[in-house]
From TrEMBL:
It comes from the Eukaryota. Residues 16-191 form the Josephin domain. Its EC number is 3.4.19.12. One of its GO terms (biological process) is proteolysis. The active site is at C29, H131, D146. GO terms for cellular component: cytosol. This is Josephin-2. InterPro entries: JOSD1/2 (IPR040053), Josephin (IPR006155). GO terms for molecular function: cysteine-type deubiquitinase activity.
Amino acid sequence: MCLTMRKKDNQVYTQEGGIYHEKQSRELCALHALNNLFQDRHAFTKRDLDNICLTLSPEAYINPHRSLLGLGNYDVNVIMAALQSKHCDIIWFDKRKNIDRLQLDNILGFILNVPTDFSWGVVHLPVYRKHWIAIREINDTYYNLDSKLNAPQKIKDVLVFLKEQIESKEKELLLVVSSEISEAGTWYQDNVVTQERVE
């Protein structure tokens, strides 16, 4: 259940008093982002995501939802299906909206999609791919759980951090919410004045 991600639910943390943080392996940043988001190394496996790819395109000779060699590089459709299996939804944040109106208490976490250079060992190639990064609150502090980091990084002000990220047209922000919150639309405060009048 997605609700096990409650902000003060310590039982999903895999390190005593610490934070679960998967580091980058092959092209598995989507897998790492999901497991880091759920703070659980058993949330998903590569096999789970590969099975989702096959479910999404069962007749495809070359599956369009992962890399040609099957090493990862999963697309957003795989992430969405994976989250739906945990009773969660993704909200693609419209950059025209005011990020300050996000209802953080109703958002379970964030996934950023950012461009990254492609490297082969120590050689960096002039090819850019997309990279998935999880951000979530743990023990009242938000953390950047990027699998390319050596360790989780504390985020002083998550709204400022997210604003800076989405200033780039190359970056996209996805909100992870429970299915109930998604349906109710209560992840965003559309009009404070209207709500106050209703109350």
